[in-house]
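Can't attach files on this board, so I'm pasting raw text. These are the components:
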Amino acid sequence: MTPGRVSEESWRPAARLDALRARAALLGRIRAFFARRAVMEVETPVASRAATTDPALRSLRASLTELGAEAGALYLQTSPELPMKRLLAAGSGPIFQICKVFRDGERGCRHHPEFSLLEWYRPGLGYRDLMVEVADLTRHALDRPGLEARYQSYQELFLDRLGLDPLSADLEVLHRAVHDIPGCRDLELDRDGCLDLLLTHRIELGLGRGHLDFVYDYPPSQAALARIRPGPVPVAERFELYLEGMELANGFQELTDPEEQRRRFAADLNKRASTGLDIVSVDEEFLAALAAGMPETAGVALGLDRLLMVSTGSSHIDEVLAFPVERA
Amino acid sequence: MASYSTNEFRGGLKIMLDGDPYVIVENEFVKPGKGQAFNRVRVRNLKTGRVVEKTFKSGDSVEAADVHDTQMQYLYNDGELWYFMDTDSFEQLSADAAAMGDSVKWIKEEDMCGVTLWNGSPLSIEPPNFVVLAITETDPGLKGDTSGGGGKPATLETGAVVRVPLFVQTGELIKVDTRSGEYVSRAKEE
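---
Top answer:
Structure tokens for the assembled complex are below.
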């Protein structure tokens, strides 16, 4: 820290005290919700030898220097997903975790490089049933029992809002829709890049206004760790929750096939290599857990800072953080 | 050529777009749940003043604009160009009417002005916040009215027209706020 960065006020929290109290109350309500439903709270390591392979994420690094053979680079988690799945494979039953996750370079009024995630897994439950539970949890956490939930597929959403079919439209049609947006004329994007841009620039702000909007069944190219449902038009069994124009949660019908999982990691690493990102080691312990057998399960991660933004009526994430990175 | 990555974006950063210098007014990081992140920015064209939106893929780089602000003394106008001098190096530069904009209404010889330079040439000129100018013409108004209410138009020596109180007369010096174009007070020769 350079002395010039310390101002008279920078020792103070960015969030007001009532936002800190709202966070404490929110955590209490979430724990009560899961206690009533017999979902066990767990903790898994924040720092691990394996890093995320997701080409859209950058891990923060740490290092272990004084532990003999174990010494070496560690990565801070971008999500607790893989170790939690190892617990499922070991027979944990339903589990949840509240933890900090880290994503390098992500900073804005809805992003902070370190943020709080609630992640939970429901073995035996399908992803559509899990959406209903996410709605229940959100109503309970916000203390808004009457909050309505609406469900729409990704395809219906794009047809409804933009009049184009995200699963079948030609790349040329997607490019034209992108280039019509002010300031986007020169962007060169692949198919998913176009869909991502249309979602963030044309659709997202209108979602979840006064109700919960669930979007489900994504293009297979955006499956991440979700199972792909085969058929004439295959879709990834994945969903997102939007409230007040903001993405709050992302859930999957989890992929359980170790061979398919290994292929997806390899495809991620190929994409990382082609875009000049570092090639990280994949989590072999996780792959071994899948090979040993993980129960069919749905899982979801929900951003707690954004949920707090909604509950406190904040427009900037700093309003709910004690010490944002600039004064951390 | 210097360049900035999108993760260096912040308000005030000067960048080149389509051959013109721009300043970032607002920068927002947007990202879907999974997938491509973008920087959605509002930028002002430093030549035209127009504000437009522009989206970059996060991680992309953009050329830096060689733009900086300095203080220079206004010397004279030759009917086409306005000449300014760096009071340390005595170097002189000329600005055209487009760069001068509204500041021609306010500045007098020897005034210190803010000059925004792009590749060494004046891009825009800012007059001092306050200037003292003589009134060349205004209605005499009613004698003895010192209430200050109402007001009347007065033409200044630079050609600018401002509203002044009724008691202020032709030939007097007044202080004007150039940002609002409003009369501040009577003034003495400095």
